[in-house]
TrEMBL record:
Domain Ancillary SecYEG translocon subunit/Cell division coordinator CpoB TPR: 21-196
Residue numbers spanned by region Disordered: 225-262
Highest rank taxon of the organism: Bacteria
Keyword Transport: no
Entry keyword set: Membrane, Transmembrane, Transmembrane helix
Keyword Membrane in annotation: yes
Record protein name field: Ancillary SecYEG translocon subunit/Cell division coordinator CpoB TPR domain-containing protein
Stretches that traverse the bilayer: 26-50
InterPro entries: SecYEG/CpoB_TPR
Bias-annotated ranges (Low complexity): 240-262
Amino acid sequence: MSNENIFKEIDEELRTDRMRALWRRLAPFVIGGAFAIVALVAVNEGWSWYSNSQSSASSTELYAALDAAEAGDLAGAQAQLDTLAADGSGGYPVLAEFRKAALLAEEGDAAGAVAAYDALANAQSNPRLRELALLLAANILVDSGTLADVEARISTLATDDAPLRRVARELIGLAQYKAGDYAAAEASFEAVLNDPLAQSGIRNRMAYYLAQMLSEGATTPAEPAQAAAEAIDSIVEGDAAPAAEPAATPAAEPAAEPAAEQ
């Protein structure tokens, strides 16, 4: 065997020994990292399964509470919602809190319902849920509270750039009408009616309110009261905004004079 071959074999043996030594040093870290990856995947999958199963259970509990409320068992529904609010997963506890507040309103406890909605609004980090809670509280206060109570909750939602401005202005207008501030109520209703993004349903309600105020003499009439009453009937029966007045029919042109007899 040549010296060159001997040196090659020795070199290969040395490289093999070095690789074995390197593997002995790194093997625990490589194997540990592999186990860690497998464990993380297993934990993630297990958590996903657990979350889905918990959400499914919470959904079932919520529907059971809604069914109980629909059947008239308000006390049973309230108890189920209390359990769901305390132990539910995902967004179901918040839904349970909203439904609990609605149940208080259905039971005639307006003050309790308003307090529940106020607590929800103060606890929410989601701005849309907070605004919804404030609107629902204001909706109750239109009947049971004062104009100041309503404005304290939703005046900031009635600005031109607020997404819920139309509903907020409607509620404020109703509270103003109840308080006897008819000019302010008319302005609130007209602001909604003139909103280019207002849908037909809310436009119809604004037209109804304005027509009703006109028929009562609460606003300066722009047309006879009988016309306002007819507008209300048209909205109720046809579920549509009052039709615009037809354009005036031009007067018939006088017939051409007969040609002079030759």
